[in-house]
Design a protein that fits this description.
Blueprint (H helix, E strand, L loop, with lengths): L2 H10 L1 H9 L12 E3 L5 E3 L4 E2 L1 H14 L3 E7 L4 E6 H17 L7 E5 L4 H12 L3 E4 L6 H11 L3 E5 L1 E4 L2 E4 L1 H10 L6 E5 L12 E3 H7 L8 E2 L3 E7 L7 E6 L1 H13 L8 E4 L6 H13 L3 E5 L11 H9 L1 E6 L1 H10 L16 E4 L6 H11 L3 E3 L11 E2 L16 E2 L4 E5 L12 E6 L14 H9 L5 E10 L5 E6 L3 E4 L2 E4 H9 L4 E11 L3 E10 L7 H15 L8 E4 L13 H8 L14 H12 L10
Parallel strand pairs: 4-17, 6-7, 6-8, 8-11, 11-12, 16-17, 16-18, 18-19, 19-20, 30-31
Antiparallel strand pairs: 1-2, 3-13, 4-5, 9-10, 14-15, 21-22, 23-24, 24-25, 25-26, 27-28, 29-30
Helix pairs in contact: 1-2, 3-4, 3-10, 4-5, 4-8, 6-7, 9-10, 12-13, 17-18
Bound molecules: coenzyme A (COA) and adenosine monophosphate.
């Protein structure tokens, strides 16, 4: 079927369309109710279907004769380890670890926090949780104890699963002390902490801590617990505009249907082929396309503990492609910028046979045309930019290569994926004509897979996403549609920034900066960075009488940021300014600062307190190299 016909049907007859797609999965009881409203008035998919996501992703394939197929490839240049798990081995490990969790009292609906590096045990822990109908919340290893504590406090997990260490390029990061500190900081204490000991670092266990390997020796394999399609599978915290991260909830049914559909419609994958998302299980890309999508589709997935460069060189992606016969590679544009920086002529590519690779997919941040053109030129492969968010769990816009490969336009994430009715709206919610930039919104109902709520706070969900424009989900991204319906995402319209494909909240960083005793006021903005896309910079105003030089202040703030948010914040610069532009009511004009930084200052709001402050801050930012050069587009 052509893309246009498929898309049209998904928008005109969403229930019939998704009922049809749901048949591709093995339900315990097929849903009778396809689309319904929950008690909060939110659209829900497949609410009365009976299922288990881990069953669909593992047991089903084993029962259908694919037990000997490789399910997971583990490749870790940082530890020198490589291994594989067949579907049968994965099933054995997952069922046993589910037994371990069960022996710790974990039941359907309980939460499990997983704080692990990129090792197969992270995937096993996630699937084991799903097997019991419990809810996992994976926290990225680059977050500091305070961030982990915030998530523990919100999710209230019964158990926490971790490893003795993570391994970055040239350092080992002991995780247990970080976990202990987080639990100490949190008002909620998990009943137990299960630790996978890695040979590189031995964690000290005490109290209710349990050793993964010891527990597995005596564990009784647990069966799959049936859940309703609308029961939660996981909570994944993501940065919002305030200091408190949002616990994006994913349901079981819609998620499985959407991911299964996407594996072919978007990625053109067939069961048995090798799919590699070079991300981390701590991010949504890792949840959807390292763990659930490829396994639901019966593919082989790759768990890679390394970087695109420096582990050991910029040929890592090509080496992996040849070694494992990867058909589709999915990574963030920043990874390709890093490869390009180290190997501009892609000389290392010449050492490998990448003929298995059919398409390169990129997401996580805008794919800038120079990176797009370089990747196409050097690899000779089609490159697909696709736009999505933690909230949606899968791509909103893409080139649907499994349905029809459409013409690519650099700078565009191509067209809306079937199920997503994407509109560009003006400030009062009216659709804008082609070419005009506005807020990107999705007409309700959203397709299966998208968040139905924020954990424990449906009001926040409604306020954050549904109230700005009635009948629409607001994405927080701005952009435009061209006259052929291609979507161009130009960036966030709020205080969320993207640093090396990682989503961070400047509001959260401002809370950290503002806690410095010498700082009266501050604004943290994202400024252009040629490698990481954006990096945060603090513009700070000192308290009267404060005496501290910029260098010392910057050093102290960098330390505070690493301690409170983690190294992943990549906060390295603070600039002391004499004042910040404000409205007459005293609100800092953050949008104006963002516009100056991106070199797109459109107009100065009439509510500004002192118009001269704009020219002043513009001059300072220019002098400090914080304004993007237009040639960098
Ligand atoms: N655990 C602990 N620390 C981590 C970590 C983890 N899982 N991941 C990153 N960090 C640390 C790094 O060691 C670094 O610390 P440092 O400041 O002490 O050196 C810091 O966080 C910043 O890391 P990063 O942004 O990854 O920078 P980098 O210079 O190490 O690597 C890139 C740069 C571009 C190679 C890397 O950011 C990358 O591969 N990005 C792709 C991201 C991605 O896949 N996103 C998912 C969306 S698809
Ligand atoms: P995350 O929730 O971490 O996946 O980040 C989602 C945000 O990343 C989106 O709201 C966009 O701002 C940005 N983003 C992701 N993919 C793209 C893309 N292909 N083009 C432009 N921006 C993107």
């Amino acid at each position: 079927m052509s893309y246009a016909a498929e898309y049209q049907r998904s928008i005109e007859f969403p229930e019939a369309f998704w009922k049809d797609k749901a048949r591709a999965l093995s339900w315990f009881t097929f849903p009778e109710t396809i689309l319904s409203k929950d008690d909060n008035g939110i659209d829900r998919w497949f609410a009365d279907g009976q299922m288990n996501t881990a069953y669909m992703a593992i047991d089903y394939h084993v029962e259908n004769g694919h037990g000997e197929q490789i399910a997971v490839i583990f490749d870790s240049p940082v530890s020198g380890q490589k291994s594989t798990l067949t579907y049968q081995q994965l099933l054995d490990e997952v069922a046993k670890f589910a037994g371990v969790l069960k022996s710790k009292g974990v039941e359907k609906g309980d939460r499990i926090v997983i704080y692990m590096p990129m090792i197969p045990q992270a995937v096993i822990a996630m699937l084991a949780t799903a097997r019991l109908g419990a809810i996992h919340s994976v926290v990225f290893g680059g977050f500091a104890p305070h961030e982990l504590a915030v998530r523990i406090e919100d999710a209230q997990p019964k158990a926490l699963v971790t490893a003795s260490c993570g391994i970055e390029v040239d350092k080992r990061i002991p995780y247990k002390p970080l976990v202990d500190e987080a639990i100490a900081l949190s008002a909620h204490k998990p009943d137990c902490c299960i630790v996978f000991q890695r040979p590189e670092v031995k964690a000290e266990l005490s109290g209710s801590d349990a050793d993964w390997a010891t527990e597995m020796q005596t564990a009784q394999p647990a069966q799959c617990t049936p859940v309703n399609g609308s029961d939660p599978l996981y909570i994944l915290y993501t940065s919002g505009t305030t200091g408190k991260p949002k616990g994006v909830v994913r349901d079981n049914g819609g998620h499985a249907v959407a991911l299964k559909y996407s594996m072919n419609a978007i990625y053109n994958m067939q069961p048995g082929e090798v799919f590699w998302a070079a991300s981390d299980v701590g991010w949504v890309v890792g949840h959807s396309y390292i763990v659930y999508g490829p396994l639901l589709h019966g593919c082989t997935t790759v768990v890679y503990e390394g970087k695109p460069v420096r582990t050991p060189d910029a040929g890592a992606f090509w080496r992996m492609t040849e070694e494992y016969g990867i058909k589709a590679l999915f990574a963030a544009p920043t990874a390709f910028r890093a490869i390009r920086k180290e190997d501009p002529e892609a000389n290392l590519l010449g050492q490998y046979d990448i003929s298995s690779l059919k398409t390169i997919f990129m997401a996580g941040e805008r794919l800038d045309p120079p990176t797009y053109l370089w990747t196409v030129d050097k690899t000779g492969k089609p490159v697909v930019d696709h736009w999505w968010q933690t909230e949606t769990g899968w791509a909103i816009c893409a080139n649907p290569t499994g349905l029809e490969t459409l013409e690519t336009k650099p700078g565009s994430s191509t067209v809306p994926v079937p199920g997503f009715n994407v509109k560009v709206l003006d400030h009062v919610g009216e659709p804008l004509p082609a070419g005009e930039q506005g807020a990107i919104a999705i007409k309700l109902p959203m397709p299966p897979g998208c968040l139905p709520t924020i954990w424990g706070d449906c009001e926040r969900f409604k306020q954050s996403y549904l109230e700005a424009y009635p009948n629409y989900y607001t994405s927080g991204d701005g952009g435009y549609k061209d006259d052929e319906g291609y979507i161009f995402i130009m960036g966030r319209t709020d205080d969320v920034i993207n640093v090396a494909g990682h989503r961070l909240s400047t509001g959260e960083m401002e809370e950290v900066v503002a806690a410095h005793p010498m700082i009266a006021e501050c604004s943290v903005i994202g400024v252009h960075d040629s490698l990481k896309g954006q990096v945060p910079v603090g513009l700070v105003l000192l308290k009267d009488g404060a005496t501290i030089d910029e260098e010392t202040l910057q050093k102290e703030l960098v330390e505070m940021m690493r301690k409170e948010i983690g190294p992943i914040a990549c906060f390295q610069r603070a600039v002391i300014v004499p004042r910040l532009p404000k409205t007459r009511s005293g609100k800092i004009l953050r949008k104006l600062l963002r516009q100056i930084a991106s070199n797109h200052l459109l107009s100065v709001p009439s509510t500004i307190d002192d118009p001269a402050s704009v020219a002043e801050i513009q001059a300072i930012m220019q002098k400090q190299g914080l304004v993007k050069e237009t040639s960098e587009e």
